Amino acid sequence: MNSLMFGVKAPPEKPIGSSTDSPNKKSPEDLIDEARQVLSKGDVQTALQKLEEAGRIYQERKDEGRYQEMQRTIAVIKGKGK
């Protein structure tokens, strides 16, 4: 027998699914604000990435209205960005 078998493991530093899982995760509103800022500077790709992330968060929250709004906004930007 191994003495480590009876040892108590330390809990993971960031438990899966906990509120501390991603402490730096931004709110969709913050991402949208950042997207507007970078878009005003002409950085279409970064703006799209931020809006897509905001859309994913809304989708995870099952906020269909806001998710659809993000999809429409992304479509408009992609149309202008080409």
List keywords for this structure.
mainly alpha
Identify low-pLDDT runs. none
Radius of gyration: 20 Å
Order of helices and strands: HHH
Number of helices: 3
Mean pLDDT: 82
Total E-strand runs: 0
**What form results from the Cα inertia axes?**
globular
Distance, first to last CA: 66 Å
Give the helix proportion (percent range).
55-70%
Helix/strand-derived category reads mainly alpha
Q: Hey, roughly how much beta strand do the residues contain? A: under 5%
Description of the molecule:
With 82 residues, the protein is mainly α. The protein has a domain of 56 residues. It contains 3 helices and no strands.
In short:
With 82 residues, the chain is an all-alpha fold. The chain contains 3 helices and no strands.
Please render the helix and strand layout as text.
Blueprint: H1 28-40, H2 44-60, H3 64-81
